[in-house]
Amino acid sequence: MTREFPKTHLFAAGSLSLAVAVMLLLSPSSEVEANRISIPLQITDESLTKNNSVKKLETHQATTESHTQTPATSTTPANIEAASAQWDNFEVKKGDTLSTLFKKAGLNDRVMYQVIAGHKSNKQLANIYPGEKLSFLRRDDTNEVSQIKLQRSQLKSLVLSRGDNGKFTSEEVFIKPDVQLAYSEGEIDSSLFLAGQKAGLKQSMIMELANIFGWDIDFILDIRSGDSFNLVYEELYINGNKIGEGKIIAATFNNQGRELKAVLYTDKKGDQNYFTPEGHSMRKAFLRSPIDFARISSHFNLRRKHPVLHTIRAHKGTDYAAGRGTPIKATGDGKVVHTGRKGGYGKTVIIQHGQKISTLYAHMSKYARGVRSGTRVKQGQIIGYVGSTGLASGPHLHYEFKVNGVQKNSVKIKLPQANPIHKSEMAEFKKQTGLYLSQLDTLSQSYHLAAN
């Protein structure tokens, strides 16, 4: 059961009793079962946070922003929406091409080429994917197409408009949604996924929670019954309708008696990352595992009997059992130095991370698009997919972590830490994150008082 609260401003700090009173007043009289609440939250200048800093939390209005690729036409995005009733809409389905969709709209390839030739940025229109929507707007007097809109998602569209010279120009239109905060918590009986679902979280949010704490917690080996989590995260709305979730703002994970806390921080450059309340990065230079929630089928073992050769052969890596086609992620930033077959390893990718460290990913079924020798990859980027090429008894990933050319146990080795908050930015960090951490603590207390 999910409890939704009306659009009332709750003060995240210094107003605990008021928040509890409102929740108790508006909740049903039956026993509280929900472990997720959604609250429109705004911090006013009268609110106090735990560190006595004052910062306004904006609940963004749903506005439209456009990034024009070419000189703008006389038609604005607002005009486009006003005339929405005149649009002919076609959903992009599997197998559709831009040509077939134009024909469905009664337009031939000559018109399609005329649209694309208007400007080099118009070629984006040809990159269509199933689930998107292509719409055409015609002029009442001539019936010719005046605008074309490719809706990528509920928040992003590509709009092409015909100018006075007859050529089409394009602009990317972004909808800025309303943001309100939601609170959720859960206790683990068997798995994080089941506990997250019981707490009302979608799979993508559970994955984000796991990614935040994934450098400190091995979600395959370290999770125990009784572990718990709570988090404050964004919910996104357009015209009062929820369209999805945004980022986790702050979260706590209790694992085997230790409490880990993470908070989102946006630096001066606009980059966002998660840190501890003290300013240490939650990130490590390397992910602990290259596959999400996979089972370790064979550990690092210098005396292992090879499953195919049936001889004693050192296993200088870690095997992750996973279904064929499961995505494999680069565990750290680096440069691809090998993509191809490598003896018993089968299809293999090797990444060099600086001077001392390299990682190897073997038995792949195929490589990710664009991953080849010489390319640079980012931590978490998909580089290939699980397979059973080479000497493999079944689909799995063989992963090696090398330091100065020597294989190390990737499960036990101490991973290098990412950079902490710089001293020059610490004051702003404390001011910004103090607000978020205060919201997490206050909503947790409010929830438990309301539940009792």
Describe what is shown at a glance:
By secondary structure, this protein is α+β, with helices and mostly antiparallel strands.
Order of helices and strands: EHEEHEHHEEEEEHHEEEEEEEEEEEEEEH
State the distance separating the first and last CA atoms: 17 Å
Can you name the CATH architecture of the largest domain?
Roll
Calculate Rg over CA atoms: 26 Å
Q: In words, what does this structure look like?
A:
The protein folds into three domains: 177 residues, Nuclear Transport Factor 2, Chain: A, CATH 3.10.450; 114 residues, Nuclear Transport Factor 2, Chain: A (Roll); 114 residues, Glucose Permease (Domain IIA) (Distorted Sandwich), CATH 2.70.70. The N terminus is likely disordered. It is built from seven helices and 23 strands. With 452 residues, it is an alpha+beta fold. Strands 14, 15, 16, 17, 18, 19, 20, 21, 22 and 23 form a ten-stranded antiparallel sheet that branches. A seven-stranded mixed sheet has the order 1-2-9-10-11-12-13, with helices on both faces. The protein has a six-stranded antiparallel sheet with strand order 3-8-7-6-5-4.
Descriptive labels:
452 residues; alpha+beta; Nuclear Transport Factor 2, Chain: A; Glucose Permease (Domain IIA); 3 domains; globular
Give the topology:
Elements: E1 3-4, H1 16-26, E2 36-39, E3 63-68, H2 77-82, E4 87-91, H3 98-104, H4 109-116, E5 133-138, E6 145-151, E7 156-162, E8 168-176, E9 178-187, H5 192-198, H6 203-213, E10 228-238, E11 241-255, E12 258-266, E13 272-275, E14 295-298, E15 318-321, E16 327-329, E17 334-341, E18 347-353, E19 357-367, E20 376-377, E21 382-386, E22 396-403, E23 406-408, H7 426-451
Parallel strand pairs: 1-2
Antiparallel strand pairs: 2-9, 3-8, 4-5, 5-6, 6-7, 7-8, 9-10, 10-11, 11-12, 12-13, 14-15, 15-22, 16-21, 17-18, 17-20, 18-19, 19-21, 19-22, 22-23
Helix pairs in contact: 1-7, 5-6
